[in-house]
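Internal tracking record. Fields below are filled automatically when a chain is submitted to the structure queue. Please do not edit lines marked as system-generated. If the sequence contains nonstandard residues, flag them in the REMARKS field before resubmitting.
Queue: standard
Priority: normal
Entity type: single polypeptide chain
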Amino acid sequence: MATRRILIPTSAYVVLIVLGLFFLIPMLWPILASINGHATLQVSLPQPFTLDNFTSIISGGLVARPFANSAVMAISTMLLVIILSGLAAYPLSRYQFRGKATLMYFILFASALPVLALVTPLYAMYVTLNLVDTLQGCILFFVASSLPFCIWLMKNFLDGVPFELEEAAWIDGASTLGGFWHILLPLAAPGMAVVGVWSFLGAWTNFFVPLIILQSQDLLPASVHIYTFFGAYGQVNYGQLAAYALLYALPAVILYLVVSRFFVRGIGPGALKG
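SYSTEM-GENERATED OUTPUT FOLLOWS
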């Protein structure tokens, strides 16, 4: 009986480790190819070992402008989504009014709409508003497409903060805005971290929307600019492509590491609450 209790967890861990390695093995290619002087599609040790792939794309101007465009769109989207979703979620969390349940279900339904289905009417509207080929147009689309789910998520996090804490702040003389700023926001930091990571990654990794809206080469983000490594006749510099991919993934990894403690602590009580 004791042996069985040991074997079952051990076998489960072995299966999980094998599955984890199965998903991690593809990451070996960009890591090894980025430092390989003669990189191909095959996973092989660097022969020779070199950092020329990184220096070539950085010194050649292939990183600065696209990454700056991506950073402007992603950071702007993240800040706007956090602010707007927090302001919209507060009354939904703290006040009762007629049609609240219907409104919440409508917001949830809007978060499930396929983004690509909106591209055609979006482009027609952007032509009318002169937002084609502008970073502002992409930012507005990212914010609008992220808000429904983020409002629902933020509302559930705010529900987890006891209302009595705000009432105590009001009794001590704090205003509604003061209670929201000094009491509610610090306690809702996990929700803000989750919403921030979600909206940042959505804008940072989006490919189709910038490809359709943006036309100038100087405005293309890194998610679109990475396709410049594919030549017209199928010739690809795999070493530089791998180096660019690693640099492209680095900001998302850093952001996740910075807010991971908020994400892990906050995703449970907020995301699963109805």
